[in-house]
Task: structure prediction
Amino acid sequence: MPQSWSMSWLTVPTPLPSGPMEIAVTPLGVASAGYVRREGGTPPCTDEPKIRAVTERIGAYLAGRTRELGLPIDWSLSSGPHRAVLETLWREVPYGRTITYGELAARSGVFEDITEPGLAARTVGQMMAANPVPLLVPCHRVVAADGIGGFGGGRVGIEVKRWLLTLEGVLEPTLDWDGPL
Result:
């Protein structure tokens, strides 16, 4: 990211099991999003139109009123193969669909020279864990060949993944699900 640019942060309330999201914005768009609260030292966003747009769009998405966030992404925190895999996910896996780690690896074209079984899929899993803009680049839609797979943040992270996949209709709601129907 050019040094003349700076990220500023805002907190967006959510119904997710993890609580509010922390979102970083730059002049190009959303550069970072997280399900874990950041502590101190981060400049707050004071751009009211950006705050309103990010808050309203994430709120509408999580309330089930829209299937597209429609927020610009600042891709500067990812590069090379990582960015290629994230962009493939962002372009090719729509709302309500999932893809396995191995399928995403193959579709991205990044791992054509890897012959060790499972290595490309495991690498994609690590890339999803390092996704700087989860929700915007929907890493919750990437699943294991034999189940839901992992998600950053331990048990709460898996609950966030389940919540989002339930919102999108991939999983059936459980009796304790607190999202929109």
Notes: The chain is about 35% helix and 10% strand. The mean pLDDT is 92. The radius of gyration is 16 Å.
